[in-house]
Fold this protein.
Amino acid sequence: MRKMFGVVCGLAMCGSLASAQAPMNKLTDRLTAATSVIQEIMATPDRSIPESILAGAACLVVIPAYKKGAFVFGAQYGQGAATCRTPRGWSAPVFVKLEGGSFGWQIGGQSTDLVLVAMNQNGLQDMLKNKFKLGGDASAAAGPVGRNAEASTDWKMNSEFLTYSRAKGLFAGIDLSGTVLSQNEDDTRTEYGSNIPFDQILKGNVPTPANGRQFVSTVARYFVVSKDNH
């Protein structure tokens, strides 16, 4: 009887540990997906984010879509990760939500990845808030791709954020006006053990956790390459 009781308790404990680990595993998967999005986009230079934009980027937000289109619930909704440039390198990641707007998360039944690039100090200051609206609180424009970046300088003067989407292998600028970007407090609490203020993480005051190092180092790698070429 005692042996059976021990087995039951052991199973219960294992189940509890597995249940507690599940949210963290989900965040790790999201960071891995965000890393893959960056790597795949930058693998084709002629159709990727131009180096001139990466060289001046203050922050980067990546919203990877779930493979089964889990973000489509009748309203537009996505979750992802962001990091910002600091004097000591790129910050630890924060987890964000993107909601609203008129864009479609699925094109022809295929889910969409989104990338947002904060281009100046105004964009950085917006990122340090816990919530803001693109096209309202912060100006945003569809970002140029590849060599087309030099065709127009409007984005350099007028846009705090450049926005991109990728679906069916096509990477292009997209209008995300009306969408709201906000901190995912529950995910922050899960990742860091408490609801650390958004700005403290993005200012580089919090060490990068183990599961976020690949995401941050991938962003830093492309930033350094672009910086060296300008």
Notes: The first helix runs from residue 2 to 42.
